[in-house]
Design brief:
Elements: H1 27-39, H2 44-60, E1 68-71, H3 76-87, E2 92-98, H4 104-117, E3 120-125, H5 128-141, H6 148-164, E4 169-171, H7 176-179, H8 193-203, H9 216-226, E5 230-232, H10 242-253, H11 266-280, H12 284-294, H13 300-307, H14 314-327, H15 332-340, H16 353-370
Parallel strand pairs: 1-2, 1-4, 2-3, 4-5
Helix pairs in contact: 3-4, 3-10, 5-8, 11-14
Length: 378
């Protein structure tokens, strides 16, 4: 299929909402240029801003067992951030949400990082039968973002745990250097619990009793404004190069590389490299590589060469497909049938879009009245 490709990054018209300017640069590049001015400081300014943030966290944490909390998946971003937090003298509670898809390497990496840093680790093992029922419901729904089950479980559990334990600061490995490109036409937010419950009600069979969702009210209002929970993304206030971060992790704690972004989860690996390209013709490598181009870590030519490589080794794909099917109690034929069915949009199920639009209107009015920028995301 012939597609128009951005002249600056490698995003293309597989994102149906992408637009291009007169020189062929796409809307993702233009959004990056705009957002990076207020959100990304890989320089002396960032160093000063981060210094003040860390000082505030340490000050508010005096006399407490922990001054912040971090979710550790075993991926490069959060693992590298944990090492930096040790250097900064923070005292985080490290939380790992085990949703059932950890690779063996992820378990090894988490253990090595926590041991090196001397941090306390709390592992929340989710009820697998509930996760499995929800994951199969998502496959039956045919929506593009199959990682909602994992992502919602991880972040909702982390936020609930922070609030319940009086920890205000949630430290996140999210960053603009490696994750700035995010086509909305590809994925709906993983935090939309209305959508999650609607999909499960339609296709699920097992009552969700221990699966912790976070409501629209909690996520956008109660936690950030009443409980004062704040998410900090330190990697946006420092030079962050993924290749160099990986090298430091290997050198310092014996970190073992996954070979792919989000390779710490066996489902995410399968979902991104097989489900999305097969069912929707979405290649997530374009998103990841475009982010690295925009942050200056790699060149566009380097990214184009990377995209020439196959998404999956045939033997590895066969093994992963059998693993995913068996874990979900499906046959490989049943899994293939679900993937081969036409995809659906999340809007075919109840969702938070109407609430979100109302929130944005209210936010705009308040900002106009108070002349202050209001942050609604926890």
């Amino acid at each position: 299929m012939n597609r128009t490709v951005c002249t600056r990054c490698v995003m293309d018209t597989s994102d149906e909402k992408i637009t291009f300017n007169s020189v062929g640069e796409c809307s993702h590049c233009q959004i990056f240029d705009k957002d990076s001015q207020s959100m990304w400081f890989p320089n002396e300014t960032g160093k000063q801003k981060l210094g003040k943030i860390l000082e505030q966290i340490r000050k508010e944490g005096e006399g407490k067992e922990y001054d912040c909390i971090i979710g550790l998946s075993g991926g490069v971003d959060s693992s590298y951030l944990a090492l930096k937090m040790k250097d900064w003298g923070l005292r985080p509670l490290v939380v790992h949400i085990d949703v059932g898809w950890n690779s063996e390497l992820a378990v090894h990496n988490i253990e090595q990082i926590v041991k090196y840093c001397g941090f306390d680790l709390y592992t929340d093992v989710m009820d697998w039968e509930e996760v499995r029922d929800l994951q199969v419901a998502y496959l039956k729904s045919g929506v593009s973002n199959q990682d909602v089950v994992q992502d919602h479980a991880i972040f909702s559990s982390l936020y609930h745990f922070a609030v319940q334990n009086g920890i205000r600061y949630v430290i996140s490995g999210g960053n603009m250097a490696t994750e700035s490109v995010a086509p909305h036409s590809w994925h709906h937010s993983a935090m939309d619990s209305i959508n999650l419950r609607a999909i499960h009600k339609r296709f699920g069979h097992k009552k969700l009793q221990s699966f912790k969702t976070i409501s629209f009210f909690q996520y956008f209002f109660y936690y950030p404004f009443i409980k004062k929970m704040t998410t900090i993304r330190p990697l946006n206030y420092m030079p962050y190069n993924k290749k160099e971060a990986l090298e430091e992790l290997v050198r310092t704690v014996g970190y073992k590389e996954y070979g792919r972004k989000h390779g710490e989860s066996r489902f995410t690996k399968f979902f991104q490299n097989y489900y999305l390209p097969k069912k929707f013709d979405y290649d997530k490598r374009k998103v990841h590589l475009s982010s690295l181009i925009l942050s200056g870590e790699i060149t566009r030519d380097c990214a184009l060469k990377e995209l020439e490589k196959p998404l999956y080794d045939p033997v590895e794909l066969k093994n992963d497909k059998e693993y995913v099917a068996k874990k979900l109690k499906l046959s490989v034929v049943e899994l293939d049938q679900l993937i081969d069915e036409p995809g659906r949009s999340y809007v075919e199920f109840d969702n938070w879009d109407r609430h979100y639009a109302l929130l944005q209107k209210l936010k705009n009015i308040l900002q106009k009245v108070t002349n202050k920028k209001i942050k609604t995301y926890a």
